[in-house]
Design goal:
Order of helices and strands: EHEHEHEHEEHEHEHH
Strand order of the largest sheet: 1-8-7-6-5-4-3-2
Shape: globular
Number of strands: 8
CATH architecture: Alpha-Beta Barrel
CATH topology: TIM Barrel
Largest sheet: 8 strands, parallel
Structural class: alpha/beta
Radius of gyration: 16 Å
Number of helices: 8
Number of domains: 1
Strand content: 15-25%
Distance between the termini: 10 Å
Helix content: 25-40%
CATH superfamily: Aldolase class I
Amino acid sequence: MSALVAPSILSADFNHLGKDIEMINRSEADLIHFDVMDGVFVPNISFGLPVIQHVNKIAQKPLDVHLMIVNPDHFIEPFFKAGASILTVHYEACPHLHRTIQLIKSFGMEASVSLNPHTPVAVLEDIIEDLDMVLLMSVNPGFGGQQFIQNTYKKVSQLRALIDSKNPNCKIEIDGGVNFETGKKLIDAGANVLVAGSFVFNDKNPEEIISGLKAL
């Protein structure tokens, strides 16, 4: 089974965002990925609820929303109402992670937790059975177009072992530096959802790039 592909809107052309969403609708992509940044948890500000609300009106793929923000509990219901199907919060931003996951699930969304590059997979041991997905950051969060961190392959293998033993239906998503080379290695290590931003949107044939990622 091929991996799911989630083009990241962070790298889209915001002067022609509707056109890029229509391209994703036509493509073999499975999800539309949104990186929401607050300038506090990460050193950048991206976009928030209004963009997701407008995209949701024309999107034909589920919205995969990644909250790189402090106090994510305050925004779980608003992002559900905006159209999120999958909601990811950061382990590092949630002092009461189990409560946060239960809140996400109470709205019928898939619940996902993200780990920064320096955070070990082992911290999820006591929560993994409650998760629908884990997102491993393969770059330091905050900016698109960064170089892939090689240690990610080892983390994917470690996470795959944990998931297989406790929650085989949980997906592994990777965000940052995904291309054909890294994507293939990530899938081989156990990942099954690939987020791709600049690799898709900087190419003159983005639909072909998405098809290529699906074929890995």
